[in-house]
Amino acid sequence: MKNQKIAAIILTGIISVSLLAGCGASQGTQENKSIGDQTETVQQNSQNDTAEEKSEFCNLSSFTAKTLDGKEYTQADFEKADLTVINVWSTGCDPCIEEMPELAKFRETLPDNVNLITYCPDADYALDYTKEILDKAEFKGITLISGDGDLGKFEKQVMYTPTTIFVDRKGNQVGEAIIGADGNLSTVYKEHINKALTAMGKQVIS
Fold it and tell me: Cα-flanking dihedrals φ and ψ of residue 172, to 5°?
């Protein structure tokens, strides 16, 4: 398992150039990131600066995704809740893994009209390790591991992990994204969720 973990981290590092530009933000450096046939220069600042730079993403109104347990997930699944929280993480991101147990506990406190799922774009390269991380954290929700359509577009927009967005029943982003890990996860997530629910005219959670 140790060798598999090392291999997963190496693979994550390789694909991060085209998939996710880093785990959190390093200060004062620049990195060329290839997306398809395009190359863009990403200025890596502090996590707070990053949040200001990129807090809006494309809507997830049309896509088909594969889940970790081999099932299919589409935008139609958003209809099951007023608000869906999507946490994007990667297997080579220590802050992502460290916050997963708290994320799992927080998910269990949510009412039925608020759902929390995760999306791990590099899971296909390390399925067993991805499952190990989620099992250890006791995360019992849905985890997406690949997707097309709007999910593919969204994936290319994500520069740092963890990144968390909030979408309504139609897959439209509501409120601000959370960029980076936070030591007070439950408080920060609850604030963002309640702002999103208020904007949608829904009752806030306690």
Answer: -80, 135
Most confident listed range (47-51, 116-120, 181-185)? 116-120
Both tokens of residue 173? 């982003």
d(CA 129, CA 183): 24
Closest alpha carbon to 107 in 117, 99, 98, 97: 117
| Residue 166, H or E segment | strand 163-167
Q: Distances from the Cα of 165 to the Cαs of 168, 178, 196, in angstroms?
A: 10, 7, 10
* Helix/strand/coil for 14: helix
Please name the amino acid found at residue 174: V
| 103, pLDDT greater than 60 | yes
Of the candidates 137, 155, 134, the residue with the CA atom closest to the CA atom of residue 146: 155
C-alpha–C-alpha distance, residues 162 and 174, integer Å = 18
Pairing of strands 83-88, 72-74: unpaired
